[in-house]
Protein 1
Amino acid sequence: MVTRVFSGIQPTGLVHIGNYLGAIKAWVELQHRYESFFCIVDYHAITAPYDPSQMQKNIFDAAVINVAAGLDPRVSTIFVQSHVPEHTELAWLLNSIAPMGRLTRMTQFKEKSRLFREEINAGLFNYPVLQAADILLYKASVVPVGEDQVQHIELTRDLARKFNVTFGDTFHEPEAHLSAAPRIMGLSDPDRKMSKSIPGSYIALADHPDKVRQQILRAVTDAGPETGKPMSSGTANLFILMSQFSPPETYERFRREYNEGAIRYSEMKRVLADDVVDALTPIREAAEDLAARPDYVRQILGDGACKARRIAQRTIVEVKLKMGLL
Ligand code: TYM
């Protein structure tokens, strides 16, 4: 049995270094080891308020930045969720075995329904079932995601198990694959995760170097290390970024200075900013090149949807047969 990787990202306007370190970097590595599917999940994105006139641009930009960051269309299948209607078909079928109570307790549902109090729609509630369908449609067993998605992958496992028990062995129970930095916190508010909905909290992969530097220099830290006190969340977050973007000796040097109480955060931030700019510059440049070739980008997504659909249709036929619908 081939090992398949599946993951997805919402087309919500920009991709930040939290997405990159939590998920995209792992996708890029895993694609050379396993058969890989990467989906731009537009049907998930419409469960929150959005601007329809921007959706096609956001989908295009999501494709561009992910390919620029290293997703290789020659080895990975990259496609848009709504181009493969079997995603919503399987979601409906899985809805019939998804426990309401469990969906009510989903952290992301609870958080988002607090945020969009006026706008709690059934799509937001069923969001994790669609996510399970995304993964199970391809019988994927490895799902690289950030920590905030782990609960959804656990639900996916449970739905796979329940389906297998009820209708006969069909699905793998997929596992979340967490990176070394699965939860990047906001730069302006390090007690909340980095998010595109919190201005000042993120660095976008396509940000100009001046903006990247400015965001890092403004990042919240503390007044300095104090003996006996744990490291503040802002400083810890900068160290995590440094562990991902800077050479090990740079990280170790600042850790040593922190332990000795001799650290100067302004210097640490300057060094980190240079290393982040160095890492993001080739991605930004590749994205600019790709954006100038829209036909090529659309072709990647068209080819991806054809390939994904062949597999998706096979799974739907198998599932409907098992459920007595064929
Ligand atoms: P989305 O679009 O919010 O985020 C895409 C990926 O980025 C990760 N991520 C982070 N990782 C570390 N630190 C952060 N601050 C941070 N913010 C985001 C997310 O965990 C995610 O891996 N529901 C999913 C999309 C989805 C999906 C799927 C994922 C739909 N179907 C099937 C995997 C498999 C989401 O909203 O991701």
Protein 2
Amino acid sequence: MDFDTIVNLSKSRGFVFPSSEIYGGLRSAYDYGPLGAALLRNVKEQWWRSMVKLRDDIVGIDSAIIQSPQVWEASGHLASFTDPLVECTNCNARHRLDKLEDQDQCPTCGKRGTFAAAKDFNLMFQTNMGPVATAENRVYLRPETAQGIFINFENVRRTSRMKLPFGIAQVGKSFRNEITPGQFVFRTREFEQMEMEFFVRPEEADEWFQYWVKERHSWYLDLGMTDENLRLREHESEELAHYAAGTFDVEFLFPWGWDELEGIANRTDFDLKQHTEHSGKDLRYFDAEANERFFPFVIEPAAGATRTTFAFLIDAYSDEDVSGETRTVLKLDHRLAPVKVAVLPLSKKPDLVEVTQRVAASLRERYDIEVDVTQSIGKRYRRQDEIGTPYCVTIDFDTLDDQQVTVRDRDSMAQDRVAIDQLDRYLAERLKV
Ligand code: GAP
């Protein structure tokens, strides 16, 4: 499967649209259509379920996007959240130097030796708070959700009565003024992250680091991502972020090669120390039993929600040969599929529509469903395969006599005849949601 195929499917089936498309697109952000919004929501829900809901050592928060500029001074983002920018003196194109295959050749005009000296370009998005735009009221859109967690460390510890080791999780939008956004939703200037900061005793940091690398790798596999398309890669020391003592990336085999889905970093006590120094508030942890006060270390699994959603879409895509015809099917895990059950009446005749509505109403409470009455049944099956719907329930003319429907399985295409009053049980046994 090539890159264009998945981009075209995303647009034609209503997963993702370029933001401001009617004005020519912004090339920085994307809008998620009905199916894309559902898929993205399911990815985030699965992350939240495994990180917060199923654990008693992690709690979740939702902090503000706009924070005090001092947060970014303390975190080091204002000084060092930069990428190396080069500008071609021949065609004026701007590139991120560390992402160029040949650092001496402009990929836009093909000329060599035309780059001026690289500059450190800060990725923070700036705006002003209040009615007048001055340097004093300059604020920034957060470039990561993590800092919202660090600055609330003491609030959360105190109010949730958490004891080490414990984590604070957050899902939300982040903004980076990327030099070269691209590869569809892979790198955008507005995106969503799923981050968790796990606070531990310093001497236990290595152990927890290994633990979270394994846990996070397993999360993708458990949600059906193909093992061969996933790998863990340890950062070389010169690659490490300014706060990290060690990092593993979970990488996915995108159509253009291996690239990052998530980073799991040992952030040491960098952030809590920095915020203590800059705010004057003591963010050390007090261990009452040992009667000691210290800065915990932090293990941080930081994933991109939008990027991960894109990877699940790519991984699930398959073209199959069915009796000489190509069938496109998204083999999404049931938990991620935007629509779980499609209800398809064979015709628009009123008595079939009436049964359809009754069946749909009975399923709607429990599952995300779609009723589709357009086109031939073959075309409707094709569409449901393309959006990854695990089960189609077809209501035909026999249904009126025998009160049975045909249930078609997305992956095997096998069809079963099931009594309407048994449908709920039949689906509950098969749908892993
Ligand atoms: N708090 C640590 C942190 O933000 P990061 O590696 O810069 O670490 C974490 O970002 C994840 O956020 C990345 O692995 C990626 O999935 C996602 N991400 C980062 N920049 C992105 C962008 N411009 N567009 C889409 N996703 C992005």
